[in-house]
Write a structure and sequence with these properties.
By secondary structure, the chain is α+β, with helices and mostly antiparallel strands. It has helices at residues 2-21, 30-44, 79-84, 86-90, 114-132, 166-169, 208-226, 308-311, 403-408, 413-422, 434-440; strands at 51-60, 63-67, 74-77, 96-104, 110-113, 136-144, 147-152, 155-160, 189-198, 203-207, 232-241, 244-248, 253-257, 278-287, 292-296, 317-326, 329-334, 340-344, 365-374, 379-383.
């Protein structure tokens, strides 16, 4: 019996149970809604150190109210407003700004900082630059004796003197206070890379030297791809060496060999160019494998020997500078020109000499006569001894000559000279000054006669 009764009552029991369990859906339950609201409030509750994006809802004297989606607005006030400086004046209601959550004060107000939020963002940007090793540009905002200061946003980065490029280092002041040695770099734009960062020590180290080295490497690769032989480009002389001059073509240096600087003979590049000089150069060759660029300066100038016949003639007297002495003669460069000629040792003087140094020295300026021009072989012969006409080399002994014989001398020079030597008592003598009279007391030298 008991089993049958139990079987009969089971359906009713199930029905009653279902009826008792019936109620509103779980998601609509008041407790679920309260729990959900509590979870959202807990999740959205600002924590110290959070970076939030808020909206300016009110602006007062020395104070900002910012809505960050919390139950109450946050406040930017006091020293935090002072750090904004000019940015505070430009802010208006409705502006979106990043803020850094600091803490709650005693009254329960949430204190925020705009400057610290920007600094956190700038530190994050600096960390990304360190990781990616990307280059960036910034202006020098300060300096001390050890280097210069460049900001990345609100973060101060330091560029040690050893990490400045050679161009920047050349700007340092060698006189005055050591603390002012980098004054000339103030507000100058520099290309840099982040090489060290430590947030805990507030340390950010930058390098211009590393950035310039990489930038030039990239520029050189681009130039090597685009440069063509015999093309003309503009550059700036970056450095000088005994064998030539280096020219910066915009990030990459090309070399002008000593022989390609001038058509004339030079011993050092400084005779033709100087560091910092802008000039046009011709590309001679491009070695893409060895990454070298050969340049020429002289090939953009007319070849001097092509115009020599128009500017110089045999017999012409020119001014020259002795450039080099050799055992067989002396080389001289014509004044205002790159043309050099040879003064053979036999053309230096009438007397016999063993070496040109007995007559001339390097760097000496003298008058020379052109005695030979060979444009095909690019040679010019010069003479020193032929500069003075032969008749001007006659040595006079101040011996008085009779008037009659002097008159006849116009017809026959040889006879007049012989008569003058044999005359014992001249009829008249020209007046002589004190110096001439003194010379007459000395034994006269024989008269040289030029026909």
């Amino acid at each position: 019996m008991s089993n049958q009764q139990t079987a009969v009552m089971d359906p009713e029991a199930e029905f009653l149970t279902e009826d008792m369990d019936a109620g509103p859906p779980m998601e609509d339950h008041p407790m679920a809604l309260l729990l959900e609201e509590f979870d959202d409030s807990y999740v959205n509750q600002p924590q110290t150190g959070d970076i939030r994006h808020g909206v300016v809802v009110d602006k007062r004297a020395g104070e900002l109210l910012i809505d960050i989606g919390y139950k109450s607005e946050g406040i930017v006030t006091g020293r935090e407003v002072d750090r904004l400086e000019g940015d505070f004046k430009e802010m208006t209601i409705g502006d979106e700004v990043p803020v850094y959550v600091m803490r709650e004060d005693r009254d329960g107000n949430l204190l925020l900082s705009v400057s610290r939020a920007r600094a956190e963002s700038d530190w994050k940007h600096a960390e990304e630059l360190l990781e990616s090793q990307d280059m960036f540009t910034g202006s020098v905002s300060g300096f001390n004796r050890g280097g210069v200061i460049v900001k990345i946003g609100q973060v101060r980065g330091f560029v040690p003197a050893s990490q400045l490029s050679s161009e920047s280092q050349s700007q340092q002041l060698t006189e005055g206070e050591p603390d002012n040695r980098w004054m000339k770099l103030m507000d100058v734009e520099l290309r840099m890379k982040v090489i060290d960062l430590d947030r805990r020590r507030n340390r950010l180290i930058l390098s211009e030297r590393v950035a310039i080295r990489e930038w030039r490497r990239e520029q050189k690769e681009k130039l090597l791809e685009t440069l063509e032989e015999n093309s003309v480009c503009e550059g700036v002389v970056s450095s000088l060496a005994d064998f030539g001059a280096f020219v910066n073509l915009g990030g990459a240096d090309g070399l002008i060999h000593l022989s390609e600087l001038s058509w004339g003979r030079i011993s050092h590049p400084k005779e033709v160019v100087s560091i910092g000089q802008k000039l046009q150069v011709m590309v001679l060759n491009v070695d893409r494998e060895r990454k070298r660029i050969g340049l020429s300066l002289r090939r953009l100038q007319p070849e001097p020997w092509e115009t020599v016949p128009d500017r110089y003639q045999v017999g012409q007297i020119v001014r020259g500078v002795i450039t080099k002495l050799v055992h067989f003669g002396a080389f001289a460069r014509l004044e205002g020109d790159t043309i050099e000629g040879l003064v053979h040792i036999s053309e230096l003087t009438e007397r016999r000499i063993a070496h040109p140094s007995e007559v001339v020295t390097e760097g000496q300026e003298i008058d020379l006569r052109i005695i030979r021009i060979d444009t095909d072989k690019r040679r010019m012969g010069l003479s020193l001894k032929q500069v003075v006409p032969a008749e001007e080399s006659v040595e006079f002994d101040w011996e008085p000559v009779p008037l009659e014989e002097n008159a006849e001398g116009a017809e026959n020079t040889a006879e007049n000279t012989a008569s003058a030597e044999n005359s014992a008592a001249p009829a008249a003598a020209p007046a002589l000054d004190i110096q001439s009279r003194t010379e007459l007391t000395e034994e006269p030298e024989p008269v040289k006669v030029v026909a």
